[in-house]
Amino acid sequence: DDGYRLWLKYDPLTDRAIVKHYQSSITSILVDGNSETIDVIKRELAMATSGLLQSKIPFINRIEKNGTLVIGNINASSIASLQFDRSLLQKSEEAYLIKNMIVKGKRCIVITSRSDRGVLYGVFYFIRLLQTQQRIDGRDVVNSPAIANRILNHWDNLDRTVERGYAGFSLWDWHRLPAYVDQRYHDYARANSSIGINGTVLTNVNANAQVLTPFYLEKVKALADVFRPYGIKVYLTARFSAPMEIGGLSTADPSEKNVQQWWNDKVKEIYRHVPDFGGFLVKANSEGQPGPQNYKRTHADGANMLADALAPFGGIVMWRAFVYDNEVPVDRTKQAYNEFKPLDGLFRKNVIVQVKNGPLDFQPREPFHPLFGAMEKTPLMMEFQLTQEYLGFATHLAFLSPMWEECLKSKTFAHDKPSTVAEIISDESRQYQSTAIAGVANIGNDRNWCGHPFAQSNWYAFGRLAWDPFSNSSQIADEWARMTFSNDQNTIQNIKSMMLPSRELVVSYMTPLGLHHLMGWNHHYGPAPWIKDKPRVDWTSVYYHRADSMGIGFNRTSTGSNALEQYQQPVRDLYESLDKCPDELLLWFHHVSWNHKMTSGRTLWEEMCYKYQAGVIGVNNMKTLWDKTRAQVDEERYNAVKQLLEIQYQEAVWWRDACLLYFQTFSKKPMYGDFKPAHTLEYYQQLEFPFAPGIKPKW
Ligand code: BDP
After folding, report:
1. Residue range 501-543, pLDDT digits in tens
2. Among 57, 319, 577, 638, which residue has the least CB neighbours within 10 Å?
3. Residue 362, ligand 1, Cβ within 6 A
4. How remote is the CA of residue 515 from the centroid of ligand 1, in Å?
5. pLDDT at 699 (0 to 100)
6. Exposed/middle/buried for 599, CB within 10 Å: 0-12, 13-18, 19+?
7. What is the ipTM of this complex?
8. Mean pLDDT calculated for residue range 395-407
9. Ligand 1 within 6 A of 477 CB?
10. Does 165 share its domain with 256?
11. 664 pLDDT more than 80
């Protein structure tokens, strides 16, 4: 098994009893309707039932037998006359209902929605029940997405390199599009649709204006045409200086009439190609990208100009809050709040501010971003990173769902209520259409899509959490493991025992106790806590860990950078106090003495050694667990994962030894624990990786 089929394998189910149950519950299938989406539904059901149940279930036009699946939107003639509570489907066109009912005197299972797209989601849910061997009788389901726009962000360049991509080159074969439409585009859309993803930004946030030229818009159209039947809209990144680069204007100042006109015309042109175009994602005035500040205008001025162009067509602007300017900051984590909080309420209705989960940059652990608790009048959307830029690339097994869940469950205390991040981004009181969530994709043209067989679980988990940000990682891991590997109970247990703690292990062997940004310069591969003297201090490691003879950590309390002032109470007080601040964020918020007594009874130095070593031990344990799955997992993926785990183990050891040897030069204390670095600090410091993958070209 080369992993190409992802979680949609449809291999024969092995539990005889459950197969019998399905065979008597599904005797025929009636799909009512006429659209490209309905065609997708028919194909999917045919594939799933013949594969999973190993029997050809007939597609029929009239209900004649018990056990008919009746499928169609609420206006389809077979469904329109049925009695059920239609208000259940009120919230969203994508909501679906699965109901056991008697139709024309026969026992049937009805799958319906207000739209064909919603029906497709219902069908995928139903197929998932089969794949995971659950009973389907007596089970009525109503399900609607908590968030309206569930979007992948591809950091794909037009030359097919992928920024921070570790799974090959871009899926989008721009050269051969639009005439050549790769089957893979269909398979991509189908996988997304099966987990409820309904949008994709095709291009890198470090944008190239070329994609907005007629030559490329033809190609974009070809992709949009493939994705549409699967309920997926296409979005593009808009380079702010495009009016100059491809429009021949002398400025991109958003207050200039001819600039506005250029964007209005450009947007019209896009909609002529792609009538359901989703809108723009914009990175402006950040890391050298142009933006409105180049003309002394604000982020709101820039975003509103684009929003006005898109509004007549129903498009949205996702304006990123990941900004930092050329000034060397006191504390980089404060910058997004400083720039965006004063703009609260100034954005157009169709602008959503896209905020990374934490205030720095996708580190293995960060506190939640303070903007989530701060913007009262501006819709905010979440940006998670699926590609493991800071969590071991596509080499380390790290199931990211628990990290995202931790963020989503964080209490912001906005609006004088606990208000979790999940509640903020799915806020019911807000116009539903303006809720959104994005995930930076980990997909490339590797045969198995994501590089590491387990990295597929992050794509899967993102979709599931985007649909329901209140769901839990254990359930998601369970589903994914069953569909991807096996329904065998022991195997599931072993695989889940690998997945669920895996992100915490990465934290332990890379950046425990709230440490952050210790990785290699530019490519971000491997440990390099010694990085200093770079063009910006906030591109160095020493700026973040601040180790000295007294202790280690970044003081962000009121006696330091006071980044804590950006949080609401009681969050502020909790982190401000050295005693109450949880261990896992201690060095994020405090500079702490090497001798500080931790809750464990160990000193800070000992605790650091202990954590690094615990990370290494944990990876070793994953290797043992994987060995136990051997009989249930196909050879190809078994061997792939086995080798990757070995590399992960070696790299965990490397992280532990390099970091502790370096920090030891400040703490001056002996190593604590049962391990001994194999090399000297100088050895680790002179390692170089000029061709590490995923590099950011311009840095
Ligand atoms: C950082 C990446 C960089 C991205 C940037 C962003 O290193 O490649 O361009 O985020 O999100 O994490 O814009």
Report:
1. 999 999 999 999 999 999 999 999 999 999 999 988 999 999 9
2. 577
3. yes
4. 19
5. 39
6. exposed
7. 0.99
8. 98
9. no
10. yes
11. yes
**Residue 685, pLDDT above cutoff 90:** yes
CATH number, domain containing residue 303: 3.20.20.80
Q: Is 287 a catalytic residue?
A: yes
Q: Is there a catalytic annotation at residue 361? A: yes
Query: Domain of 615: which CATH number?
Result: 3.90.1330.10
324 alpha carbon – ligand 1 mean position (Å): 11
Residue 613 pLDDT: 98
pLDDT of residue 239 exceeding 90: yes
Q: How confident is the model at residue 415 (pLDDT cuts 50, 70, 90)?
A: confident
The phi-psi region of residue 234 (left if phi > 0; otherwise alpha if psi is between -120 and 50; otherwise beta) is beta
Q: Pull the structure tokens for residue 53.
A: 């149940």
Q: Give the H/E segment covering residue 99.
A: strand 96-103
606 has catalytic annotation: no
Identify the domain boundary among 430, 448, 483. 483
How far is residue 28 from each of residues 52, 89, 419, measured CA to CA in Å? 15, 25, 46
308-321 pLDDT, tens per residue? 999 999 999 999 99
Q: What is the mean pLDDT of residues 210-228?
A: 98
Contact (CB, 8 A) for 445 and 165: no
Same domain, 412 and 451: yes
Helix 36-53 / helix 116-131 crossing angle, nearest 10 deg: 10
* Distance in angstroms (rounded) separating the CA atoms of residues 349 and 431: 9
Ligand 1 midpoint to CA 625 (Å): 34
C-alpha of residue 39 to centroid of ligand 1, in Å: 39
Domain final residue, candidates 127, 143, 159 = 143
Which residue minimizes the CA distance to atom 1 of ligand 1?
A: 361
Average pLDDT over residues 18-33: 97
Binding site membership of 206 for ligand 1 (Cβ less than 6 Å): yes
Cα dihedral across residues 353, 439, 165, 504: positive or negative? positive
C-beta of 696 in contact with ligand 1 (< 6 A): yes
Structure tokens at 686: 């002179």
Q: Is 4 within a domain?
A: no
Sheet hosting strand 28-31, strand order edge to edge: 28-31, 68-71, 106-113, 96-103, 141-143
DSSP string, 20-76: HHHHHH-SEEEE---SHHHHHHHHHHHHHHHHHH-S-PPB-SS--SSSEEEE--TTS
User: Distance between CA 510 and CA 653 in Å, rounded?
Assistant: 10
- The active-site residue, picked from 32, 389, 405, 478, is 389
**Residue 72 belongs to a domain with what CATH number?**
3.30.379.10
Question: What pLDDT, on a 0 to 100 scale, did the predictor assign at position 698?
Answer: 55
Please report whether residue 139 resides in a domain.
yes
Does 132 lie in the same domain as 155?
no
| Same-domain status, 206 and 347 | yes
61: how many CB neighbours lie within 10 A of its CB?
10
- For the chain, the domain total comes to 3
Same domain, yes or no, for 133 and 179? no
- Do 130 and 156 lie in one domain? The reply is no
Find the 362 Cα to ligand 1 centroid distance in Å: 9
Indicate if 93 and 158 belong to the same structural domain.
Answer: no
Rounded Cα distance, 328 and 325, in Å = 8
Q: Is residue 523 within 6 Å of ligand 1 at its C-beta?
A: no
Q: Report if residue 576 sits inside a domain.
A: no
Same domain, residue pair 604 and 477: no
Domain range for 615 is: 506-554+591-685
Alpha carbon of residue 61 to chain centroid: 41
Is there a contact between 8 and 51 (Cβ–Cβ < 8 Å)?
Answer: no
The answer to whether residue 636 sits within a structural domain is: yes
Percentage of the chain modeled with pLDDT above 90: 95
